[in-house]
Each structure stands twice: as C-alpha cells, then as structure tokens.
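INTERNAL AUDIT FORM
Audit reference: QA-55
Scope: verify that the stored structure record matches its stored sequence.
Auditor: D.O.
Record contents follow.
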Amino acid sequence: MMSSLSLLWSERTPRERRMLGLGAAMLLAILCWLVLLAPALQARAQWQKDLPALRADLAQMQAWSQELRSRPVRAVSSTQTINKINLERSLADKGMKAQSLNLNQSSRDTQVQLSFTDTSFSALTEWLQQVQGSMQLVVIDASVTAKERIDRVDAKFSLRKAS
C-alpha cells in the first residue's frame, strides 16, 4: 500500500505535487473548520445570546432571596391539641381515613402511628404538611408502596411531636 502510494507520488510532476498538496491542505482546513471551529463559534454565539436572560434571571432570584431574608420570621401559630379526634378530623378534611391510628402520649413525648390502604399520595403529602404546621408533628419513620393506579399508595407513618 505504502509502496504503491510512493510510486504514485513519484510519478507526479512537481507542479502536480504542489497542486495535490495544496488541495490536501485546503481539505484539512475545511475539515478543521467544520469539526472544530464552527461548532465552537455557534455555541459561543448562543451563549452570548442567552447570557442577558440568564443574568436577568439571576438578578430576579437574588431579589427574591433578599426579600425573603428581610421578612420577619413568623412566629409559630398556636398548635392544635394532638388527640385522635383532631387527627381524624384533619384526615377527613383531606378526604382520607386511616386504616389504623394509634396515639401514644407520655409526659415527655407524643407519638402517632398511622397506616393507610389505597389512599391518594398527593392528599397524604398535603396532610403531612398540614399536621407539621398545625400540630407540630414530624415524620420519624415512613413506608410508602405505590399501587397500580396513579397517585394511589399504601403507607405507614410514625410521627412525633417536634421538640
């Protein structure tokens, strides 16, 4: 292969060799342009076009962050008493009913164990957020199993009164 190329090259006149060399150099330059330089220049132009919008977004987020930092911290609202009636009522407000609800209260601690079968996951998460704010209950253990239908789960939770 190399010998046949060497023979082919030696048969060419100096003018043909210059022309072939110049053609190869131009082909290499075009290939470098298409593979290396053009994509980089296009990406740079796109970034320059997107940069003002990204800077505006950053300024907006910084303003929101500053606004949140300057707001006074809200005092925790008075908490509801943790009892079975209030827990069942708060569940009913979300259209749910616990399969089992156990309340263990001691002088130092309050714990709640709940289990649900085929309940709405979105309603369950909303309820958990609600009781975290209104009753100061936090999740200490959770087990959630998805059902075939969308937004339906079996779940077990252990909640504790936040200290």
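Auditor finding: record pair retrieved intact. The two ends are 83 Å apart (CA to CA).
Action required: none
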